[in-house]
Amino acid sequence: MAHKNYSRREFIWRNSLTGLGAVLTPSFLTNKPPKAAATSSAMPIRSTSFLVTEPPALLGGKPVRTKDWPAWPLWKPEQDEKLLLEVIRSGIWSRDKVVSEFETRWASTVGAKRSLAVVNGTNAIITALAQLNIRGGDEVLVPPYTFIGTVAPILANGAMPVFVDVDPETFQIDPAKIEAKITPRTKAILPVHILGLPANMPQILSIAKKHNLVVIEDACQAHLAEINHQKVGTFGHAGCFSFQNSKNLAIGEGGAIVSNDEAFMDRCFSYHNYGNPYGTVAGAIGTGTLIQGTKLRLTEYQAAIGLAQLKRLDAETTTRNTNAAYLKNKIRHIPGIVPYKLYDSVTRGAFHLFPFRYQKEAFKGLSREVFLKALTAEGIPCSKGYATLNNMPYLNDAFQSKNFQKMYPKEMLSFRTYVERNHCPQNDRLCNEEAVWFTQNMLLGSQSDMDEIASAIEKIHANADKLLSQK
After folding, report:
1. How far apart are alpha carbons 302 and 87 in whole angstroms?
2. Among 23, 1, 31, 15, which Cα is nearest to 382's?
3. Which residue, 325, 326, 329, 451, could crosslink 48 as a Cys pair with Cβ 3.0–4.6 Å?
4. Of 56, 27, 61, 65, which is closest to residue 370 (Cα–Cα)?
5. Calpha distance 23→71 (Å, rounded)
């Protein structure tokens, strides 16, 4: 059966199905390449090079790689199950001491005073926005190169997302384009450390301070990434993380907010527990629920899984960084391959994804779609990444809702005008033409695994003319 090249959305969806005590290994992660349609008589391809005479696997040649990739998530019963089993046998499954322990450990890990665990990263952002009083009538600056889970919380709070184009070299929000998007309605900047690569926080914070704007970091893909040896998520007023199954710290579902603002964190805690009293959100005895809230509490067994995963996170992050740097050096000289760039202030990446830009002109005009198919056929799973978020129908759906119609003037809710005003050409190029991803589990392999990735790309480049007939 032909190997399927899973999109990012399919990858997340498949990983969301992992049940308690079991680990699924979708083919996007384990990747068993298809058998070649025909066997070439040429000498076998070495793991660190190839012979140009060997046809591409997509045309019947021998794949560069035939081994599985490291499975994700990892679960080591002898190390990981003790606390989980204790929690399950205790019958105390709702939020209690184990969740509190995870919050304490996560805050310490990222270098924040406080952490609050919630059901997912999307609701971490919803909560942070709400408790920083970002509501109807406000505008939030956000990059378009991200997952829908960044933008949906802005709409959920009644605010208007305003898209700021990206720096294509880093895939991050471009600070040079932020100030042009600020209006009297602008209340916050929501930078995203997308792909696990840090955004340019020093410049973003400078702009925010100048214009008195709140900064909420979407660090959902950026566990343990650093700028000048400070963990991302701790620069702004709040930082939000995700522990969804594909993330570098995988729980299945889960998220966290971190901050050094005690009163803000008390409000977040109250909000995630129906709005009941907590800390400085306190009233007289019998007062009851004090603020508008919802129910976003994490369970004890999720926290037990998180604590098990947290033990390995630092070492795994080091491995990802080592392999990412090695792979970048291997492929950066291949014509038409432009790997990610880190800002000078970045001292550590998270590499939830390894991105590069594909420029078809250097591949004889070979389309990105065929390049992805050819690379997958060589045993290297890959993805084209995100679609453009700044022109999708979900935005118009929000604009046509009763609440938005009451909160915004008619001219702001014209979808056609909105799309024109929020056009981001650099993002369009990344999404529609250039971006290519490898997932983080691939970076947990060996140096020879990275050699095979590079060899597969070199092989496709050398045979690009032969692949032009493919669709």
Report:
1. 10
2. 31
3. 451
4. 56
5. 9
Where would I find the H helices in 332-463?
A: 368-377, 393-399, 402-407, 415-421, 425-429, 447-462
Whole-angstrom Cα distance, residue 315 to residue 437? 22
**CB-CB contact of 277 with 270 (8 Å):** yes
Residues whose CB falls within 8 Å of the CB of residue 87, separated by 6 or more in sequence, listed in order: 93, 98, 300, 301, 304
Angle between helices 300-331 and 77-90 (to 10 degrees): 150
User: What CATH number labels 13-75+312-385+431-467?
Assistant: 3.90.1150.10
Average pLDDT, the chain: 91
CA angle 146, 449, 171 (to 5 degrees): 20
Over the stretch 79-98, which tens digit does the pLDDT of each residue have? 999 999 999 999 999 999 99
Contact 161, 151 (CB under 8 A): yes
Exposed/middle/buried for residue 450 (C-beta within 10 Å: 0-12, 13-18, 19+) = buried
Question: Per-residue pLDDT tens for 198-256?
Answer: 999 999 999 999 999 999 999 999 999 999 999 999 999 999 999 999 999 999 999 99
What are the sequence ranges of the domains in the chain? 13-75+312-385+431-467, 78-306
Largest CA distance in the chain: 83
The Cα–Cα gap between 271 and 283 comes to 15
The packing angle between helices 300-331 and 447-462, to 10°, is 50
CA 241 to CA 172: how far, in whole Å?
17
* Per-residue pLDDT tens digits for 359-386: 999 999 999 999 999 999 999 999 999 9
CATH topology of domain 78-306: Aspartate Aminotransferase; domain 2 (3.40.640)
Token pair 């650099």: residue: 426
Closest C-alpha among 223, 213, 153, 156 to residue 187: 213
Q: How many CB atoms lie within 10 A of CB 152?
A: 18
Say whether 190 sits in a helix, a strand or coil: coil
Find how far residue 120's CA is from the centre of its chain: 13
Indicate whether 113 pLDDT > 80: yes
Look-up: residue for tokens 């909560």?
127
Closest CA to 306 of 104, 448, 92: 104
Q: 3-state DSSP call for residue 274? A: coil
Amino acid at 186: T
